[in-house]
Amino acid sequence: MMAMMQRYPDLRPRNLSIASAVVVIGAVVDWRLGLVLAVWLAAWGLNIVLSGTAGAAKRFVVPAIFGITLLVLWQMSVRLFDVSSVILPAPSDIWVTIRGSGAVLWADFVQTVVKGALSGYVIGAGLAVLAAIAVDRSQFLQRGLLPVGNFIAALPIVGTAPIFVMWFGFGWQSKAAVVVAMVFFPVLVNTVAGLKDTDAMQRDLMRTYAASYWQSLFKLRLPAALPFIFNGLKVSTTLALIGAIVAEFFGSPIVGMGFRIKTSFGTLELAMVWAEIAVAAVAGSGFYGLVTLAEKQLTFWHPSQRANR
Amino acid sequence: MRNAIPVLTVVVAILGIWYLAVGPMNFRLALDAATRGGTEVTPASVAEQGETGLIRLMLDNPQVMPAAYAFERPRLPQPQHVVAEMYDSTFGLIRRCAWQGWSAESDNWTGLSDGCLRVVENRRSLIFHAWKTLAPTLLGFAIGTGLGILLAVGIVYNRAMDLSVMPWAIASQTIPILAIAPMIIVVMNAVGIQGLLPKSLISSYLSFFPVVVGMVKGLRSPGQMDLDLLHTYSASAPQQLWKLRLPSSLPYLFASLKIGVAAALVGTIVAELPTGARFGLGARLLSGSYYGQTVQIWAALLTAAICAALLVGTIGAMERRTLNRLGLAR
C-alpha cells in the first residue's frame, strides 16, 4: 500500500478520503448520484494508476477507458434519472437505431459525404492549389492575396449556403459549391505560404542544374510545400463536412444527413439525430485519418513525421 | 503598410469580378422578363431560350444587359446595392434624431430621441441583429476560453488527465459538431434554458478546443533550462505556472484565441439558422433565403464579415500590445 502511494502521489490517503466523502455526500443527496460519482471516481483512479505504469499500451488504454467511462456514465444517468428520450436518448437506444436503419444512414452518407462534401473538397482544394501556382510567379499578387485570403478564411463562409442553394438548386451540387467556397481559402493560403518555403541554397542548386521554372516547381517547390498543403487539407476536412450538412438545412432532396437531422428533429426522433451525429463523427475522423495517412506517405522526409518513428 | 497596394489591388479585383458576374448571373431572369414584357429578343420563345447557351443569348441580345444589371430580385446583386441595403438598415433608419437631454424619470440613458435609437432598436436594423449574435458569441467565447485554459493547466500538471483527455480533445476537432448546433439549442429550450445561454454554449464549445490544444502547447513551450532555473530557486508549482509557463504561453494563447473567436461567431450564426430564431444575423440569412431577398442575405453576410473582422482585429491588437510589452513580439 505504501509503495503504491509513493508511486502514485494522486492516490494519497487524503485524496482517497476526499473521493470517498464526495461519493457518500452524493449518495446521501440521492443514491443514484452517489452511484454515478462512484463509477466516475473509480474509473479515474484506475486511469491514475494506469498512467503511472510503464509501457506503450497505456497511450491507447487510458483514453479508451476515459471514453468508455463517459459512455457508461451517459447510459447510467439516462436510465437512472429516467431522462425522457425526447431530451437525451441513451447510447444503447442510439446503437439500436444505427443497427436498425443502416440503409437510411448509408443513403444519407452517400448523398452528403460522398456526393456533397467529397466532390466539393476535391474541386475546392484542386482549384486552390492551381490558383496558388498561378499567383506564385507574382510577388505583388502574393503579398495582396495572403492577407485577403487569411481574412476570408476567418469569415463565416458557411453563411453563403442559402445563396448557393438558390443558385444551384436543392441537389448535391449546391452543397458541393458551399464546400468549394469553404475549402478554397484555407488551402490557398497554406499553399502560397508553402511555395515560399524553400531556402536560397535549394533554389540556387536548382539553378546550377539549369532547371526551368516548371522543373524546379515540380521537383523542389511543390514537394517542399506539401507539409503546408496538408495542413490546409486537414483543416478543410471538418469544414467540408460542416458545409455539406449545414447547406442541407436550407433545402435538400429527401435524403442527406442535414435533411435527416432536421426532419427527425421535427418528429422528435432524437435517437435518429444522434445516429446521424455518430455517422458524422465517424466520417469526420475517418476523412481526417485518410488525409493524415496520405500525408505520412507523401511527406515522410519532413522532420515532423520523422519524430514519430 | 508595404502590403497596402497589393491588398487593395486584390480587393478591387474581387469587386470587379463580382460586378462583371452580375450581368451573366441575372441574364436569364432579365431575358425572361423582357420576353414577357413584349421586347423583341432572339430566340423569341421562352422554350427555345431554355435550350440556348448563356453566351449565345448574351451575344444575341445585348439590349437586355442593362436590365440584367438593374434586375429587381437578382440572383446576384450589385456590390453597391448591397452596401446601400446595409446603409438603409443601419443609419438609414434614423428619423428625426435630436438631443433631448437627460431626465431623471426617463429610463433612456442616452438622452437621444427615439428617432436616433431606431438604429439599434428597430427590428430591421442590422446593428440590432449583429448585437443579438455578438452578445452570445462573446459570452460563449469568454466561457470557452476560461475553461480551456483551466483544462490545459490540468493537462500539463496531471499525467492521468493528459493521457485521458488530450486524445479526445484532438479527435473532437475532426467532428463536424457545428452541424448539430441548432438541435442543441432546441433541446436546451425544451429543458427550460433560454436566452443567451444556449447559443453561447455552442460558441464556448467551439472556442474551447482550439484554446485547450494551443495552451497545452504553450504551457509546455518553456525549455528545460528555464524549468531547471526555477527549480534551483525552489519555486513551487503555482509559482512555476504564474511566472514561467503562463507568460511564455501567451503567443500560443493569442493564436488560438483568434481561431476560437472566429469559430465562436460561426457557431452562433449556424445555431440561429434552422431553429426559428427571430433575431440575429443567422435569422436574417434564413428569412432572406425564405423570401428570396438576395440583397438582404448579402447584407447580413457582409455584416457578419465585419463582425468577424472586428473580433479578430481586436484580439490581434491586444496580441501586439501584450507581446510588445513582454518583449516577445516577432
Overview of the structural elements:
The complex is a heterodimer of chains A (309) and B (330). By secondary structure, chain A is mainly α. Chain A folds into two domains: 2-83; 98-306, MetI-like fold (Orthogonal Bundle), CATH 1.10.3720. Chain A has 14 helices and no strands. Chain A has helices at residues 2-7, 13-29, 31-52, 58-80, 91-100, 102-136, 139-153, 161-168, 172-195, 200-208, 213-248, 257-266, 270-298, 303-306. In chain A, helix 2 packs antiparallel against helix 3 and helix 5 packs across helix 13 (270-298). In chain A, 37% of the residues are buried. Chain B is an all-alpha fold and 330 residues long. Chain B folds into two domains: 4-76, no CATH class; 125-326, MetI-like (MetI-like fold). In chain B, helix 7 crosses helix 13 (281-290), helix 10 (196-219) runs antiparallel to helix 12 (237-272) and helix 12 (237-272) runs antiparallel to helix 14. Chain B starts with a helix and ends with a helix. In chain B, 38% of the residues are buried. The mean pLDDT of chain B is 83. Classes of the chains: A mainly alpha (309), B mainly alpha (330).
